[in-house]
Protein: Amidinotransferase
Amino acid sequence: MTTASPQVVLSVAERVPTTRRYLMCEPRHFTVEYVINPWMDPSKPVDTDLAIAQWTALKSVYESLGHTVETIEPVPGLPDMVFSANSGTVIDGRVLGARFRAAQRSAEADHYRRWFLEAGYRDVTMPSRINEAEGDFAWTGSLLLAGTGYRTDPAAHAEAQEVLGVPVVSLQLVDPRYYHLDVALVVLSEATATRPAHIAYYPEAFSAGTQRVLARLFPDAIRATEADAACLGLNAVSDGRNVVIAQESTHLITELQANGYTVLPVDISELRKSGGGPKCCTMELRG
Structure:
């Protein structure tokens, strides 16, 4: 008989933030004019000015925490370019670009590729398999968690391991509302030499086998509720202590605070009309 590991709850003083560098894209051309996920409804009005205001507030939160925010120029005709997380995965300065499943977003990948080259990155690889970057890839500090089921090809996981030189764990998504890993799981603190990674996730977004994998790898994980997931509460950004999260995710916010995190709720209601939240708008530039 085995006994479950006791949950380790750390105080705020023990949660250590680390300074991050992010890439964002202003939603100057944001609208909902096609449907590529269950959140999108072109018949509902979109307030682009409000989306810009919400994005600007999100950017300001990062900067108030001491993080660096780089920006890429938005391109007319690419309304989802604001979701920068989908266009690159950067670990130790190596860049694996994106290849989108939806034709409507395919042009975004090359704009981001050019940004990386102009910013001085030299180790930039564009994928041969469909790969929606940090939409489906989550770095834990020791493992790259890789989602599949709706967007990223399973074969892209092996490609990511080869290009980025990090071990990859494949996770199967089974709920079309949570079509990307980053709307079903968030890395709250990365692994260190003395402490394992800490995550939060919505179990029902994953297959039964994947749920067992996550329980084995992260026994102390915070398990989000359906209500948390439904407002895109898991599409959050954490620096190890400060968690930027959709303000409607009240249960998850309470759990985060109980686990020693400082929570910064934000309004992403307009951006959510395309199925995006703080993480979708935020690519992390590591190394």
In short: The chain is about 20% helix and 20% strand. The two ends are 44 Å apart (CA to CA). Residues 17-284 form a domain with the L-arginine/glycine Amidinotransferase; Chain A fold (CATH 3.75.10.10).
